[in-house]
Amino acid sequence: MKISTGKFILILLIVLFEGFFVTSVKAGGYASEKKPGKAGGESSEKTSEKAAGDASEQTAEKADGSTSKKSSVKVPYDYSANIECVKEPEKPLYGGGIVTGASAGGKKLAAPIKGSVLKVDLKKDQHYALSAWLKLSKGTGNITAIIVPPDGKFITAGAIVARSDCWTLLKGGATAYSEGKGDLFFETNSTAEIMAESIALQGFSFEEWNAHREEVVAKERKKKVQITVESGGKPLPDAELSVEWVAKGFPLGNAMTKEILDMPEYEEWFAKRFKWATMENEMKWYSTEFHEGQVGYEVADKMLALAEKHNISVRGHNVFWDDESHQMDWVSKLGQDQLKEAVAKRLKSVVTHYAGKVIHWDVVNENLHFKFFEEKLGKDASGEIFKEVAKLDPKPILFMNEYNTIEQPCDLAPLPTKYIAKLKQIQAYPGNKDLKYGIGLESHFDKPNIPYMRGSLDTLAAMGVPVWLTEVDVTKGPKQVEFLEEVMREGFGHPGVKGIVMWAAWHAKGCYVMCLTDNNFKNLPVGDAVDKLLDEWRKVPDKPKTDAKGVFEAELFHGEYKVTVKHKSLKEPIVQTVDLDSTKSAATISC
């Protein structure tokens, strides 16, 4: 769903800068140390500083004095984000990047000045990470960052809720597909003026951006493991091994529909690929009690049994949906007392029925866009529902689940700062402090803004709870496959993301947005792309063998593996499952 931002009152930033600046930081892990620095020999010349009320200009040279050579030193990406509203802004990330001196020497900008635009030199085919500390001159309101690349298209690069009594960090970005002068400015829906400090715009080539992902994958998704093979208590050298991923590791799943119950080919196709699943509709209130008092879980129970047969973990989706348009007619007509009673019955019924059988609960779905239960039962309805779900089923992680938080920065309802504020409100409800929380991001994309996606994930991950992409899909178009792969790689390559579930459940009459197979369960191009990623993220070495000490050592993705051992001394192959998930790095197989 796309939502227009409407008409903003433009109160634009404040200062005019021109120039070009490259900062180099030594690569040392996938995240920077929050110590913005400049390369040796780098100089920055301040050409003018006008009085308050005028624009200022600043120029800089590259460290080596050259004008066009691409730096061979990689700049690590900084995944950090301060989600507190602070009295004094922090220093700019990357030393400001190509914005050299937006907060030079800790000085605040001569702001606000209306009608000003920040001029920047943009390179072709680069992702630009944007960060800025922002506040308003009065009250509270939304501030949106706009980047206009040389092609003239206006790109919403990020948005936050800002206050007048403290500074809030915005992280986002945009991609430049052409080279030349670009504009950066801010706008607000408030009558207040915008103040900005520590603005940074750091460019990364697509190769650098992908390298950041690979660094995260190497550190967060893989590890060096040892498999020792013994026979009669002694090492078995030169044993031939076959290693196959079978379970655990990074969760990558898909939605499923009730059609899977009657179609063995659908079941086979699904179970071969996915060990995590979400029922598309079958657990929802309107599927289990469409008519008042007629509660039935038969379909969902059968789907859960099928999942258990294949060792597939299931997310509970959902206890409630805050969208009035998805309430049954009988629910919409209830008065406050009657609705409160109905909510209590539904909650107890579904959570008790599936207690201990699901890994997550989407507790109140889409409660940033919609407020059915809050409007009927009070502003703390979500907090109370989270509390009661945890009482009945304490093991699963309890999720908010929302769309457009990382997909559409121009949709102001579910901004990362608003998501965090809502989650904090739920956590602050009496009795909720120690519950297990998760951040669910539906991830329904059209054309993804990858730098904005990463910056938003940075912000959300700073809450310190698991982040899952819960309903990933990309609308049909000529670049659907390319866009889906980019979204999946960005999620898999972000340290804060702990799981991905796609929203590509098969339907005979057509999928919701994205189908992976045709009706004969032959992969479509999107399905081939998913299979390619699955193969890549579960890849094992070719023809592994034990060394002279009976040890096989390799970098493997986290997971549970089936290992088959063949050796001339063995009458028949030995097959054993070994657990090499994130907490384990060694296993012994006895023949």
Automatic annotation (TrEMBL):
Residues 31-72 are annotated as: Disordered. Gene3D superfamilies: Galactose-binding domain-like (2.60.120.260), Glycosidases (3.20.20.80). InterPro entries: GH, GH10, GH10_dom. Residues 240-533 form the GH10 domain. Pfam families: Glyco_hydro_10. Residues 43-52 have a biased composition (Basic and acidic residues). Keywords: Carbohydrate metabolism, Hydrolase, Polysaccharide degradation, Signal. It comes from the Eukaryota. Residues 1-27 form the signal peptide. One of its GO terms (molecular function) is endo-1,4-beta-xylanase activity. GO terms for biological process: polysaccharide catabolic process. Belongs to the glycosyl hydrolase 10 (cellulase F) family. This is GH10 domain-containing protein. The lineage of its organism: Eukaryota, Viridiplantae, Streptophyta, Embryophyta, Tracheophyta.
